[in-house]
Amino acid sequence: MTKAISKQQDLDKITEVIQQYFEGLHQGDIKKLDVIFHADAVLKSPGMRRTKSQWLDLVSSRQTPKSQNAAFNYRILSVDVVNHQAMVKLYCPLFAHHYIDFIGLLKEDGQWCIVNKMYDDL
């Protein structure tokens, strides 16, 4: 396999993970979110830190954008891949907020998963 094909396959897999992230957020589907986040992932915004478990509890307890008929306007702004690590910049409109997320992923055991999420409202 050439490096170009391998890199494209990685980009495709990363995009799949991010699409699942968007769908999980929009639908409030913690099962979709749980499988794409590493067990020890940490979610951070200025002045706030959450474990994966704390965040999933929050997602499961709130109304969903889908239930409020919110448009599905999530977007990938950029993707940077270096070997087995990636940083993806996202636009995530949730409720009255317009978040920019920086999602850190690692490829371990052949699978891409989210290990870090930093986000802030515009």
General description of the model:
It is a single chain. The chain has 122 residues and is of the alpha+beta class. It has a single domain, classed as Nuclear Transport Factor 2, Chain: A (Roll), CATH 3.10.450. Helix content is 34%, strand content 44%. The chain has three helices and six strands. It has helices spanning 3-27, 30-36, 52-61, and strands at residues 37-45, 48-51, 75-82, 85-94, 97-108, 111-121. A six-stranded mixed sheet has the order 2-1-6-5-4-3. Helix 1 (3-27) packs antiparallel against helix 2 (30-36). The longest helix is centred in the first third of the chain and has 25 residues, at 3-27. It is globular, with a radius of gyration of 14 Å. The chain starts with a helix and ends with a strand. The model has no long low-confidence stretch (mean pLDDT 95).
- CATH fold call: Nuclear Transport Factor 2, Chain: A
Main sheet specs: 6 strands, mixed
Q: Approximately how much helix is present in the residues?
A: 25-40%
Beta percentage is 35-45%
Global geometry: globular
> Which CATH architecture would you pick?
Roll
CATH class category name:
Alpha Beta
Q: Helices and strands: which structural class? A: alpha+beta
End-to-end span in angstroms? Answer: 42 Å
What does the average pLDDT come to?
95
| Total strand segments | 6
Give the radius of gyration. Answer: 14 Å
Could you say how many structural domains there are in total? Answer: 1
Q: Which segments are poorly predicted (pLDDT under 50) over 5 or more consecutive residues?
A: none
Strand-and-helix sequence, N→C? Answer: HHEEHEEEE
Instruction: Count the DSSP helices.
Output: 3
Spatial strand sequence of the major β-sheet: 2-1-6-5-4-3
